[in-house]
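User: Hi! I'm a student and our assignment asks us to look at how structure tokens line up with a sequence. Could you show me two examples?

Assistant: Happy to help. In each example below, the sequence comes first and the structure tokens follow. Example one:
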Amino acid sequence: MLHIHCPYCNETLPEAEFAHAGEAHVARPETPSEVSDEAWRDFLFIRENVRGLTFERWRHIHGCGRFFNAVRHTVTDRFLTTYKAGEPRPDLDKLQEADQ
């Protein structure tokens, strides 16, 4: 079972407490009515799906209910860090150095 740290509650809890909410840092078009159908499709459905470190959104559904971001390795399912929504992305190079 995965254990995930909620940066708002400051607790590390089992995965069942949380819901995955997709890729993090996906910018919504400022004027959706002016975006082409193809660009709108890409915004809604096309994601990176990388093998390795990825930025994800999670929600603490059985706790504070808030959304937060996480850096997770998709092969090992290991979480390197979690951080509050709205905070900038952490530097992956520094995270990997600290992890070794």
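Example two works the same way, sequence first and then tokens:
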Amino acid sequence: MSIIICPGIHEPDLTESFILECLDPSFDSLKRQNQGKVLIYPGHSLLALSSLHIVQFLGDRLQHELKSPVIFLSFSAGVVGAIGAACAWQLLGGNVKAFIAIDGWGVPLSGNFPIHRMSHDYFTHWSSSLLGGGHNNFYAEPPVDHLSMWRSPQKVKGCWVDSSVEVSASPVRLTASEFLHILVTRYEEN
């Protein structure tokens, strides 16, 4: 399984911070099993919006191993390019295990694969859910600034909400990095 990271339009240092602070522990089991790859799409400029360039990047890196399962993990403007790339990859015969959008406010999300949204506040969570998303999502509580979700998800506390569960059920409290770890572990096992 490969994790495809699609950053937004921001300084590359933020993505490095995200990987060091959040992803390294989550992907240790993938690395130990020698079956996983963490691929970081280098388009931190307007190319973050380009689904075509992301699909080309995947084809080059995965050597067109379409059946190899992938998880898309995208942030901010990178969500725009990543959702199109995930749908295109699947149309080409690729195996998209899941799509995780971190603070992709205003981006409609739909696909024939599980979709999860993570938001920096409740308003973004609520308003984005009107544009599609899955059952298991996360929002920061208390709210944080937009870049904190990518820079330091291990410090962002919030709520895991499952829209398939009864409304009266209390959301689960955890950090953004714990939520990501749970999702990735779930898709590793299935």
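Here is something you could point out in your write-up. The beta strands are 2-6, 37-40, 69-75, 95-102, 115-119, 136-140, 157-162, 172-175.
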